[in-house]
Design a protein that fits this description.
By secondary structure, the protein is of the alpha/beta class. The chain contains nine helices and 13 strands. Helices cover about 35% and strands about 15% of the residues. The longest helix has 23 residues, at about 1-25.
Length: about 375
């Protein structure tokens, strides 16, 4: 008995530490797809919700919040992104204010957002010399970027929000050495998400694979499905991440992507009328390889939220999830735009209020 007690104490201690470790890493939110619907924790999103005769249940009402972990590693351009009140750029302030704003987004009923490991254009459209990438040239992860992402994903997990995590962005992918570095980046980022235990993350391999700006062939339309298929092979404890990729505005996806993807991503940029939106959705569902699956717009820079019909409401009428793309136009104040750096993450402009008020009307302010 004495030997048992002497040996048992450290064994029990080890078991206790192991259990506590598992509990500390336990996550609250799991996203799944059933048919055309997104489910969170076993129930369809917005369960039972109907708006003006249109089913909302199972949709992701989202916004493009891609700059949540932004930093410019180029000292020559970093000054472009300084805050107006401090005259300096601070990546931790940016992430902290993002996290602080998430509760308010949820109160209005928004249940999802897109964030990118290589951001998006910090001026709305176009890329120049800035370097904003969570990857080293060989595809290894930059810890400081991933630490900021972890803070955001932890909060999203607590709020039961779904995160669409973009891996690559044109204008930044050239900072990866070669195709092997691209593959490394995919493996490292997906494994990081799985090892952290997140189950509320969807993967967008790259933003607008067909813009003819990507440097690596595997990120272009003819081969991007290879990376989608790669993501699907990466598993931990029997779990994998659901995955897709996007095309530029007003463009249906190609059959190779539709056949490989778990859900379809399309963009509303360039979709200038509600008739064009309806046609884009119809054409998307007519692509070879389409089967019953969710269609998600996670980027649209058309608003008209005060009108009876707009791109957002037409997407809802056609049972498609919709996402805002808002950037600060020339001459607009700091409060405008969720993509332009530095970002005011609050709902502090008329355009932002127009979107979130319509989100609240459509969703009833619930998930």
């Amino acid at each position: 008995m004495k030997n048992f007690k002497i040996l048992g104490a450290p064994i029990l201690c080890a078991i206790f530490i192991s259990i506590m470790s598992c509990q500390a890493g336990k996550k609250n939110t799991v996203v799944e797809i059933k048919g055309e619907q997104f489910y969170v924790n076993g129930k369809p999103t917005y369960e039972g919700r109907v708006w003006k005769g249109n089913k909302i249940e199972g949709l992701l009402i989202n916004s493009r919040m891609v700059q949540g972990i932004f930093d410019d590693l180029n000292p020559e351009t970093r000054e472009l992104f300084k805050y107006p009140d401090t005259n300096t750029w601070d990546p931790d302030r940016n992430t902290n204010e993002f996290v602080e704003a998430m509760d308010e987004w949820k109160k209005y009923g928004m249940n999802s957002f897109t964030i990118n490991l290589q951001g998006g254009s910090p001026t709305g459209y176009g890329n120049k010399a800035w370097v904003n990438s969570a990857f080293q040239p060989n595809g290894e992860l930059r810890p400081e970027f991933m630490d900021r992402l972890e803070r955001i994903l932890d909060k999203a997990d607590d709020l039961k929000m779904v995160v669409m995590l973009g891996v690559f962005y044109f204008g930044q992918d050239q900072y990866l050495d070669d195709e092997q570095a691209v593959i490394n980046a995919v493996k490292n980022s997906v494994n990081w998400v799985l090892e952290k235990g997140y189950r509320n993350v969807l993967i967008e391999v790259n933003n607008e694979c067909d813009v003819n700006v990507y440097d690596h062939e595997i990120l272009k339309p003819a081969r991007v499905h290879e990376l989608i298929d790669l993501v699907k092979t990466i598993k931990k404890n029997g779990n994998r991440l659901l995955v897709s990729t996007s095309y530029k505005g007003n463009t249906p996806p190609k059959p190779n992507v539709v056949k490989s993807s778990d859900f379809i991503l399309i963009h509303g940029n360039g979709v200038k009328t509600t008739e064009m939106m309806e046609k884009l959705i119809q054409d998307t569902r007519n692509v070879e390889g389409y089967r019953i699956m969710p269609v998600v717009i996670n980027e649209d820079d058309h608003y008209d939220f005060d009108k009876e019909r707009n791109n957002f409401t037409v997407a809802i009428e056609n049972y498609v999830s919709w996402g805002l793309f808002d950037f600060r136009r020339d001459g607009e104040p700091f409060e405008e735009g969720f993509q332009s750096v530095p970002v005011d993450w609050g709902i502090n402009s008329e355009r932002k209020k127009g979107f979130f008020n319509l989100v609240k009307e459509i969703t009833g302010g619930k998930f």
